[in-house]
Amino acid sequence: MKRVVLIGSGGSGKSTLARRLGEKLQINVYHLDALFWNPNWIGVPKDEQRKILLELVRKEEWIIDGNYGGTMSVRLSAADTIIFLDLPRIICVHRAFKRMLQYRSKISPDMGEGCEERFNFEFFKWIWYFPTTKRPEILKRLDQLSKAQQVTILKTPKEVREFLAKLE
């Protein structure tokens, strides 16, 4: 487990799991939200996102969390381990709302400079519809990966805790 990709809905716990894995495995963690957003929530252009990502995946070890469908194939093909946090939408909405309250008027640890935490209707809709709009495509991509790659799908917070405990 040296090149790890974490994907899943907003609020699923990608960044938290990435940080914990980074600590346990002593591998650098890269949060795509921090890399792909400029201050005041101005998105990094797609060609620049791809350039950043191609540079990252050339490294020997890394943990990358985030979805970003336009660059997902780059990450998936370079990874030896893919973890899909496939948690229920109600948990994801609750966690995202809780995070917004916790970091209101602040910047969360996995976000880019100048991007204060927010929870708006568009983000809520994205989380709520993730199981029907994004999940099928993710599962299809995961099914097409090499058998040499380790794919883990975690569906509950308990499964996430058990996964982490096994690494001890």
Q: What can you tell me about this protein's structure?
A:
With 168 residues, this protein is α/β, with parallel strands linked by helices. It has a single domain (3-166), classed as Rossmann fold, CATH 3.40.50.300. The chain has helices at residues 14-25, 32-36, 46-57, 69-78, 89-102, 121-133, 135-143, 157-166, and strands spanning 3-8, 29-31, 37-38, 42-43, 62-65, 81-85, 150-154. The protein starts with a strand and ends with a helix. It has eight helices and seven strands. Helix 3 packs parallel to helix 4 (69-78) and helix 5 runs antiparallel to helix 6. A hairpin with a 3-residue loop joins strand 3 (37-38) and strand 4. The model has no long low-confidence stretch (mean pLDDT 91). It is globular. The strands form two sheets. It has a five-stranded parallel β-sheet with strand order 2-5-1-6-7, sandwiched between helices. A two-stranded antiparallel sheet has the order 3-4.
What does this entry show, briefly?
By secondary structure, the chain is α/β, with parallel strands linked by helices. It has helices at 14-25, 32-36, 46-57, 69-78, 89-102, 121-133, 135-143, 157-166; strands at residues 3-8, 29-31, 37-38, 42-43, 62-65, 81-85, 150-154. The chain has a single domain (3-166), classed as Rossmann fold, CATH 3.40.50.
